[in-house]
Amino acid sequence: LRIVGTELVQKLFSQDERLFSGLGGFLPKIARALVDAGAVEDATTVEQHQQNLLPLWELFREFGSLGVAYAAANHLKLSNTLPPLPILPLAECDQNRVVAALASLDQ
C-alpha cells in the first residue's frame, strides 16, 4: 500500500464509507488515528490499523455495519439498545465474534 496524499485517503475510504462511519461511533480514537495517518500519507500506519481491524471489517461485511455497531456499542457499555426494526440484533454467537474482534484491538 504505497499510495500518497489524497489518493491514500481515497483508497482508505473507497472500501466502504459506512465501515468507517460505523467504526467512528464506537471506536473514535482508532478511527481518528486511521484517518490522521491517511491524511499525513503514513501508509505504514494505515496498513497496521487496517490489519488490526480486519476481523471487525469482516464482520461489518458479513452482517452490515449497523448490526455490528450496535453489538459493539452494547458490549463497550456505550449503549444498551437494540437496532430499530426491521434490523434484528446479531445472534449471541455472532455477538461473541464482535466481542472477540474488539478484544484483539489495542483500544
Characterize the structure shown.
The protein has about 110 residues and is mainly α. The chain has helices at about 5-15, 15-25, 30-40, 45-65, 65-75, 90-105. Helix 2 (about 15-25) packs across helix 3, helix 2 runs parallel beside helix 5 and helix 4 (about 45-65) crosses helix 5. The longest helix is centred in the middle third of the chain and has 21 residues, at about 45-65. It is elongated. The protein starts with a helix and ends with a helix. Mean pLDDT is about 80; it is low at about 1-5.
- Portion in beta strands: under 5%
Count of discrete alpha- or pi-helical segments spanning 4 or more residues: 6
Q: Characterize the biggest β-sheet.
A: none
**Spatial gap, N to C terminus:** 24 Å
- Average predicted local confidence, pLDDT: 81
Number of strands: 0
Radius of gyration: 14 Å
Residue share in helix: over 70%
Structural class: mainly alpha
Poorly predicted segments:
1-5
What shape does the CA trace take? elongated
Secondary-structure element string = HHHHHH
State the main characteristics.
107 residues; mainly alpha
Describe how the helices and strands are arranged:
Blueprint: H1 5-14, H2 17-26, H3 28-39, H4 43-63, H5 65-75, H6 92-103
Helix pairs in contact: 2-3, 2-5, 3-4, 4-5, 4-6, 5-6
What is this structure, in a nutshell?
71% of the residues lie in helices and 0% in strands.
